[in-house]
Structure formats: structure tokens, C-alpha cells
Amino acid sequence: MNRLVAYFIRFAIILIGYGVAALAASAFLNVMFLASLGYTPEHVQPAATASLYFSIPFVALFVAYFAFMPAAIAILVSEILGRRDWLFYALAGAVVAAVFLGFAHQTADANFEITDPRVVAAVIGSGMVGGIFYWLSAGRSAGSWRQAGRSTSPGRSGS
């Protein structure tokens, strides 16, 4: 019973971490977009900052949707291997973003192609930011469900 509870708790932590990662990647994309338009912190009007309150969660929905399958694979690998270092998650986020770019390039029509290197760098950077924020919220305890299951199983001796 304790093992099942540990699995559910870990699953909830993973979902919360994925939401935090999507919000962080969205915030990074929004800041990069504003920077590409020439806005600096000194020039941003209150209307621009108020619009971020809506656009960051809205874009996070798209980020979470398009990154779900590659991110689920990366999360599964990190949980099985018990990886708890930030660099693994940053690189996994970059790989997830690169997989998204590959899918976007493969399925794109002539009107929508991501060919600008600055856009590619911003998307891969947002994947890295999302990976780091996933590590901050859920990745530092990856694989903990295995240790909780071992230490609470009845009938195990210390030797």
C-alpha cells in the first residue's frame, strides 16, 4: 500500500514539475519575443507587462501540448535512471525542443517554416529553461519512488 502511495505522490510531483517547466519555457519565449522587438526593461509599458499575465499561461498550454511526448520519454528515462543533475535536464530540454523543431519542419507547409537561426536558438533555449525548471521542481528527487518502495517493503532485513 505504501508503495502505491509513493507512486501516486511521485506522479503528482512530475505533473506539477511539467506544468512549472511549461510556464518557464513560455516565459522565456515571451521575453525573447519582446527582446526581438527591441523592448528593454526601461521601455516596457504597463500594457506590455499586463499582457504577459495572459500570454505566458496561454503560450504555456501550447508548449505543454507540443512537448508532451518527447518530454514524457525524457522524464521516464530520468526516473528509471534516477538522474538528479541539472545538466541532464537542461540537455533533455534542448533535445525535446529539437524534436519539436524537427516535427515542425517535417510537417510544415510552405507558409510556415522555422528557418531563422534566432528562432531556432530561442526555442532550444526555452527547452533548456524548461528542463532546468523541471529539475528545480521535480527532477531533484527523480527515482525516489524506487527507494521509498525498497525501504518500506515488509520482510526485508538489513543484511
Q: How would you characterize the overall build of this protein?
A:
- By secondary structure, the chain is an all-alpha fold.
- The chain is built from six helices and no strands.
- Helix 1 crosses helix 2 (46-66), helix 1 (2-36) packs antiparallel against helix 6 and helix 3 (68-81) packs antiparallel against helix 4 (86-107).
- The protein is globular, with a radius of gyration of 19 Å.
Globally, the shape reads globular
| Total beta strands | 0
Distance between the termini: 24 Å
Class computed from helices, strands and strand pairing: mainly alpha
Q: Count the DSSP helices.
A: 6
Question: Could you list the spans in which at least 5 consecutive residues all have pLDDT below 50?
Answer: 155-159
- What share of the residues does DSSP label as strand, in percent? under 5%
Report the radius of gyration as a whole number of Å. Answer: 19 Å
The helical percent reads over 70%
**Sheet of most strands:** none
Q: Give, in order, the helices and strands.
A: HHHHHH
What is the average of the pLDDT values? 83
